[in-house]
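Reply to thread "Modeling small-molecule complexes from scratch"

Following up on the discussion above, here's a worked example others can learn from. I took a protein sequence and the SMILES for guanosine-5'-triphosphate and predicted the complex. Inputs first:
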Amino acid sequence: MADKEDNAIPAEHAPASVRIRQRIERARKRFHANDNIADFLEPGDLDALLAEVEEGMRTVLQSLVIDIDNDHNTRDTARRVAKMYLTEVFAGRYVAPPAVTEFPNAESLNELMIVGPITVRSACSHHFCPIMGRLWIGLMPNEHSNLIGLSKYARLAEWIMSRPQIQEEAIAQIAEILMSKVSPDGLAVVMEADHFCMHWRGVKDEAVMINSAMRGSFLKDHTLRSEFLALLNLRKRD
Ligand SMILES: Nc1nc2c(ncn2[C@@H]2O[C@H](COP(=O)(O)OP(=O)(O)OP(=O)(O)O)[C@@H](O)[C@H]2O)c(=O)[nH]1
């Protein structure tokens, strides 16, 4: 019987996704839908993935019995979808985190600061349907904290959200990266989002999901937490 190794595709001929997956597995890292895998990409990999996803999407469209050879509207859809996934809506899986300059808290500021609402866009891991929402970030710095530019909150959130997500994990990832960049005394994150897997299909309900992640002094200090929540302008319901 032929040795299993004999049938293995030589690494250089394996599809890009297989080569990348092997690197990740060798490093014993995770590659769930909402994980960033930029560290495992080599030059040229993204273009190779684009061609591979396009080919896969072409097969999906053919399986949906769409005449992609003669339908002028869907002729380039496979390429468009591949590009949209890899370079736009799921780019946060494939690119390194945005550069964030951290400034020392030279004046030892220790007053509540709130940023928001930041618009967030994602897609649910379950159906790949859009998630559109708003995010508020509350920070209580201390003398050891870093201060980061205001725009960086939106850039970091976008990096996390442009992956297939579920809202509960997305907010935890946002809290984790902010804790590591800012080292605040306390951090509060609130997200309110529409899930189109509920609006457009399935149960067809307009309900929104609101969730929060509290860290440090926001967990211990009820007054601080109440002050933060009172200052948010959450959607007014009819
Ligand atoms: N907890 C959580 N659920 C989500 C999120 N986004 C989408 N969902 C839900 O994921 C679930 C997937 O459910 P399944 O039962 O596996 O799939 P389904 O049969 O298509 O479900 P229906 O949507 O009820 O038709 C649905 O209830 C979605 O509403 C999210 O961010 N968090």
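What I'd highlight from this example: The mean pLDDT is 93. The beta strands are 102-104, 113-124, 130-140, 146-148, 164-165, 186-195, 208-216. Questions welcome below.
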